[in-house]
Amino acid sequence: MYAPIYLDYAATTPVDPRVAALLGRHLTLDGLFGNPSSTTHAFGRQAAQAVEIARNQVATLLNAAPREIIWTSGATEANNLALVGVMRAQARRGRHLLTSKTEHKAVLDVCRWLERNGCTVTYLDPDPDGQIPLERVAAALQPDTVLVSLMHVNNETGVIHDLAAIGALARERGILLHSDTAQSAGKLPIDLQTLPVDLLSISAHKLYGPKGIGALYVRQQPTRVRLEPLLYGGGQERGLRAGTLPTHQIVAMGEACRIAHDEMNVEQARIQRLRARLWQAFAGLGTVVLNGHSQQSIAGILNVSFTGIAAEALLAALSDIAVSTGSACTSANHEPSHVLRAMGVDAIQARAAVRFSLGRFTTAEDIDRVACAVTAAVNRLRELSPLWEDYQRGVKTEVDWGALP
Ligand SMILES: *Cc1c(COP(=O)(O)O)cnc(C)c1O
């Protein structure tokens, strides 16, 4: 029998063995287990040193200054700190925030909370290819807009947004730009010396580091972005994020960023070739629709709808292949993806969408096996599907998805 194949790298990545080795090292008496805030002894001071080396590694990946990096528990917390922190600290400047309908729930749910707490939020519609046109951003900016929040790469479709253009526009108007880069950090070059982004969220477990650690970049130059903390306590992270620093997690995230920085170009080129191989195999099935942008897209994500079948049925048929119908966070409920719906994808195509996400440990053999298994399953399910028959006869049907094979 074959081992199961993991093609859900956009949900989380396995920890790189080089990172895992470090992670274990700083837990026990013979490692750097000390509290980095304990500056009175060497245990604490050495841990603090290791934390600063890791901060440098994260900063290097983003071409930022180390003091612009604030440790958090992940991208969710970084998004919360950025949005709530800025809207609270800068309430006197205005109460309006601009974002898009295709953001991760870790931005959208924060926006809903802000709306219940005195802010107004505009949610922009994407184009059918998932991009947010610059003119639409320009038209939605208001005199009291304080912040724009736009993800770099969408976690469901892989679509890349033009942060440079949108950031330049925001800056012209004195408006801050925050970006959730959980899907792009370590995969696309990000140069904060030139990119006009003021706040940026990253997560270690999307770039082969451990879960439970991430960072928020907060721009310090030419001007310091003001924000209020969410947590109060020991004054760590310059008062912006209290709590004892998890040295082992931080050191691991630093190493994950170092590796990503060193290997990004070669790795992305390889993953791009694997995705093309998968897409070519699917093209043979006919009536397979790409959800997203054919050019402006990250290498590791391929979101496709297999017309005539329900994604859940396909996933059930692919028992030893891990893929997803959308983001991991929304697949528990059976709503069609909010991202695809915002792009104007109809309910039937949205329910037929499967996200394949590839990564560091994906091999060509994996791709060939998946292509083979998917082709067989799609052909079999289509034979059983009244929807596919209707589709071929050109009949538009109202579907009860629960009844499909
Ligand atoms: C995974 C992900 C998150 C959540 O990150 P955590 O570190 O798990 O909190 C947020 N945004 C995007 C785009 C993601 O892909």
Structure description:
The protein has 405 residues and is an alpha/beta fold. Helix content is 39%, strand content 13%. The chain has 12 helices and 12 strands. It has helices at residues 17-25, 42-62, 75-89, 105-116, 134-140, 163-172, 247-283, 311-317, 338-342, 347-351, 364-384, 386-393; strands spanning 5-6, 69-72, 96-100, 120-124, 145-149, 176-180, 199-203, 214-218, 288-290, 301-306, 321-322, 353-357. The strands form 3 sheets. A 7-stranded mixed sheet has the order 2-8-7-6-5-3-4, with helices on both faces. Strands 9-10-12 form a 3-stranded antiparallel sheet. Strands 1-11 form a two-stranded parallel ribbon. α1 packs antiparallel against α7 and α7 packs across α11 (364-384). The longest helix has 37 residues, at 247-283. Residues 398-405 have low confidence and may be disordered. The structure holds pyridoxal-5'-phosphate. Pyridoxal-5'-phosphate (PLP) binds next to α3.
Tell me the layout of helices and strands.
Elements: E1 5-6, H1 17-25, H2 42-62, E2 69-72, H3 75-89, E3 96-100, H4 105-116, E4 120-124, H5 134-140, E5 145-149, H6 163-172, E6 176-180, E7 199-203, E8 214-218, H7 247-283, E9 288-290, E10 301-306, H8 311-317, E11 321-322, H9 338-342, H10 347-351, E12 353-357, H11 364-384, H12 386-393
Parallel strand pairs: 1-11, 3-4, 3-5, 5-6, 6-7
Antiparallel strand pairs: 2-8, 7-8, 9-10, 10-12
Helix pairs in contact: 1-7, 2-7, 3-4, 7-11
Structure, briefly:
The chain is of the alpha/beta class. It has 12 helices and 12 strands.
